[in-house]
C-alpha cells in the first residue's frame, strides 16, 4: 500500500503540482506544495521498501507476491476514489 501511495505524490511533486497530503489543511483534502509531496512520496517509498524486505517478498514466494499486489490494487482503487474530486476543494 505504501508503494502504491508513492506514485501520485511523487508524480505530482516532481511535476511541481500541489496535491493533498496528510500535512495539508484540512489533512488529505487541502493541497500541499510540490516539495512536501516529494518528501511524502520518498517516505512512503522507504516504508514500502522496509516492509517489502521484512516480508521477504520475492518472485519465488507466490503468496507474498499475491498479497503485495492485492495491497497495491486496494490502495490504488482507494486513492482513485479519494482524489477524484480533489480540484473541487
Features of this protein?
89 residues; mainly alpha; 3 helices; 0% strand; elongated
Overall helicity: 55-70%
Largest sheet: none
Number of helices: 3
Question: Assembly type of the shown chains?
Answer: single chain
Q: List unreliable stretches of 5+ residues.
A: none
Question: How does this model look, in words?
Answer:
The protein is mainly alpha-helical and 89 residues long. The protein is built from three helices and no strands. It has helices at residues 2-15, 34-54, 62-83. Helix 1 (2-15) runs antiparallel to helix 2 (34-54) and helix 1 (2-15) crosses helix 3 (62-83). It is elongated and about 40 Å long. It starts with a helix and ends in a 6-residue tail after the last helix. The model has no long low-confidence stretch (mean pLDDT 87).
